[in-house]
């Protein structure tokens, strides 16, 4: 499990998953130090951890298009709050749509109301602020 400190802790958190071994994990900040055209993040509710590991990349470089899974059930099952995840994307300046990279773009409140506020699973299409400023 990605946020486990060791194999024993991972086994406790695994639930129905089988821990088959260990692997080395690197943050995006440790391997990417340049602009990125597009990035897809779909890690079963651990998307906030990926954003944390890409903090410098997202703040100092440009990830022009970012598509992230937004699954409220998986976020909550991994002790993450959907509203904090949406606010982090907003803090980074991204315009966010649940339809496409062309919009319509939604406010954080609108994003959190997808599925009428019930548990919801969709992709969020995030556009870097400089691209949105360049459009007439």
TrEMBL record:
Residues 7-95 form the Methyltransferase FkbM domain. It comes from the Eukaryota. InterPro entries: FkbM_mtfrase, SAM-dependent_MTase, SAM-dependent_MTases_sf. SUPFAM superfamilies: S-adenosyl-L-methionine-dependent methyltransferases. This is Methyltransf_21 domain-containing protein. It comes from Haematococcus lacustris (Green alga).
